[in-house]
Amino acid sequence: MSQPRGPLLFKDIDIAGLRTLATYQTGGGYRAVKDVMLGEGKKSPADVIEIVKASGLRGRGGAGFPAGLKWSFVPKDSPKARYLVCNADESEPGTFKDRELMEKNPHLLIESMILAGYAIGAHTGYIYLRGEFEYVQRIVDAALAEARAAGFVGKDVAGSGYEFQLYTHLGAGAYICGEETALLSSLEGFRGQPRLKPPFPAVEGLYACPTVVNNVETLMNVPFILANGAAAYRQWGTEKSAGTKIISVSGPVKRPGNYEVPLGMPLRAIIDEVCGGMRDGLKVKAVIPGGSSVPPLPASLLDTPFDYEAMGAAGTMLGSAGCIVIDDQTCMVDSLWNLIRFYQHESCGKCTPCREGTYWLKEVLERLEHGRGRKGDIDLLDDVAGNILGKSFCALGDAAAMPVQGFLKHFRAEFEYHVEHGRCMVNRRRAEIAAKFPETVSA
Amino acid sequence: MNAPVMPTEPAAPQAWPAALEPKVAEALSHYPNKRSAVLPMLWLAQNQWGWLSPGALALVARTVELPEPEVFGIATFYSMFNLKPVGRHHLQVCMTLSCSLMGADRLFRHLQRKLGVGHGETTADGRFTLRKVECLAACGYGPCLQAGFDYHHDLDERKVDALLETLK
User: Fold this and answer.
1) Nearest-CB residue to A94 (from B66, B102, B139)
2) CATH number of the domain at A21-233, out of 3.40.50.11540, 3.30.750.24, 3.40.50.2300, 3.40.605.10?
3) Contact A34, A227 (CB under 8 A)
4) Does the CB of A61 have a partner CB in chain B at under 8 Å?
5) In CATH, what is the architecture of A332-441?
């Protein structure tokens, strides 16, 4: 076996057969469930929440919200049922970590959900997988069947007397269902459209009951934290960005893929050392560090440390850590047009700023890319983006507007060149293809 | 894109095949109400018949006790539900940025020429439907496509030609 790809979640990930209960237990699997819920060292749900709070674990789906704090928002005195939902929709372009985590280590997710469910007092949990992950659902369902047979999931978790039922639920192709309230609508059998917050899901979520929604990677850190303590988790990362993060690197680097790194590693080291640098003699032009919804960073900012605070200070976000590396032969107008097609396609249609705004962004970018840009188009893009940002019903609108502003901020010259010359200043070959086969290049 | 039109012709009566009945009951048992089982039911129907015919939509509506137009409205919201028949092999090519940087446009053009069909079209022999789709969460292995539910990574012209040979 080659070197482990990371110190915690990826330490054992490449072990053959890890997805079976036997192999998982050989490596200490389900020990945390027994330690926390049984015997001498038994911990109360409140203790569990305190430990997770102390660990500094933050949501790994994109927002970076402290996980323990989110759990503590569930009302202690509610007479209603409580639910735990795992967001396994993994729909942010550039992000493909949860898929590998679940595919290779499904029992870790199950163990994590038992513990998180116990902490918030939930007796039912759902794993909401994106529709394309049908094969992942089969893997997780097989692991669930094993966990049920072994008594870890069901009426009496490991003999503790605590009931926890867990099911998978397959989406059917909708980016918006990664937004937690849209996910809950979808799980309830409605069109996957977002709901107003407040009330937040912790108070009124699934079936109007207190609900915690956590990302796959966030949850998977929980067994380690409970087995080893908050301080052990803080051996990685920085004071405010504790722990490790799985980064998904895509684009023309030599070794794209998922890597687990301590938070705070500079982007340049991630590209040059972890991913082996760029292929084919290409150079980095930009990196979209946190999934397609965050503004890009130009190559001049590659020394920025990869953590929540430093990314924020550099004008972008760590997001889901889907690092899309864009090379110097790629046109930024074309790249932005590609991303905006995505958001226009995925806008759920509920609110006007997002539904209409993404449509007009797409129209303007399409004409810019095809050499039909008009004077004033760049200001128009900026204006439309500004009128979506902060004015849409959910974060999808912001997710479309922020890249527009970031691309214009750092690469305005390329957009101006398009307006003036009707073609790209880079990547002539691609521009020629676009002119020759417009119907095949557009979506 | 044309807005989906709800079919008006009388739906052919349809019932769950006996072999699927345990799966229907199992899925219904996962939720406190029947409505929540609408996506699992739509999947069972599509996996059984290849697409969601008016009869299949009506069957799902009866199973989860919702009005047919509402089930139709739910089915149209999600891009993976086929409201028209598709070929035996549904090739869904990711076109989003990471795959595009690695040559998704070229891959799609190649498939288009080779199969003689465009986006959303099915070959005359009913073997392939070709479709552009958005991000499949395989960004590090682009360009990629899903044939049905099966992922195929790191594709180029040669590899995709070999793949087509295996899809009869």
Assistant:
1) B139
2) 3.40.50.11540
3) no
4) no
5) Up-down Bundle (1.20)
Identity of the amino acid at A34: K
> Cβ of A135 and B150 within 8 Å?
yes
**Hey, what CATH topology would domain B89-166 get?**
Glutaredoxin (3.40.30)
Q: How far apart are CA B151 and CA B168, in angstroms?
A: 17
pLDDT, one tens digit per residue, over A160-176 is 999 999 999 999 999 99
Per-residue pLDDT at A435 exceeds 60: no
| CA B96-B101-B103 angle, 5° bins | 90
Chains A, B: CB contacts within 8 A come to 147
Average pLDDT score over chain B: 94
**Average pLDDT score over residue span A342-364:** 97
Confidence band (pLDDT; 50, 70, 90) for B2? Answer: low
| Shortest CA gap B155–chain A (Å) | 14
Q: Which amino acid is at A197?
A: K
Asked if B123 is an interface residue toward chain A (Cβ–Cβ < 8 A), one would say no
For position B1, what pLDDT does the model report? 47
Q: Which fold has domain A245-327?
A: Ubiquitin-like (UB roll) (3.10.20)
A443/A342 Cα distance (integer angstroms)? 9
Q: What confidence tier does B6 reach under pLDDT thresholds 50, 70, 90? A: confident
Chain B neighbors of A433, CB-CB under 8 A: 105
Tens-digit pLDDT profile for residues B49-86: 999 999 999 999 999 999 999 999 999 999 999 999 99
Considering the four listed CATH numbers 2.60.40.420, 2.40.160.10, 1.10.10.1590, 3.40.640.10, the one that applies to the domain covering B18-77 is: 1.10.10.1590
Dist. CA B4–CA B15, nearest whole Å: 24
Nearest alpha-carbon partner for A116 in A125, A128, A105, A129: A125
Check residue A301 and report its DSSP letter.
G
Residue A429 has pLDDT above 80, yes or no: no
